[in-house]
Amino acid sequence: MLYFAYGSNLNHFQMKRRCKDSIFLKKINLKDFRLTFRSKYRAADIEPKKNSIVPGALFEISKSDEKKLDLYEDFPILYKKYYFYYYGKKIMTYTMVKKSPFKFPTERYLNVVKRGYRDCKLNEKYLKKGLKGS
Fold first, then answer.
1. What are phi and psi of 65, to 5 degrees?
2. What is the pTM of this model?
3. Domain 2-121 listed as CATH 3.10.490.10
């Protein structure tokens, strides 16, 4: 199946460790969404926003990879699944169930995300925007 990563799972090393079958395909943009950080974990989330984009990575993952991600993302308590279509292909990502207020991520988590942006060659201006929390 196809999975869209936008937070710490952009980090190739971490993603491989979590999902051994995962294959990074390419970077893509999720339209009409924006990146933010929230919850007691101060983790990445996406929320609808017109004329905004969330850059991320498209991965091919196996059924067992999906089960591991479900556990890691605390599905369906912390994150729920969100499906969208990209050039006719169905893609799965996660979005937080409770849209709590913005919380700046921990330095450790942010470094993992930044590394992921570099791994996937994403434009960090969107990450900087997401860190403003507005």
1. -60, -45
2. 0.97
3. yes
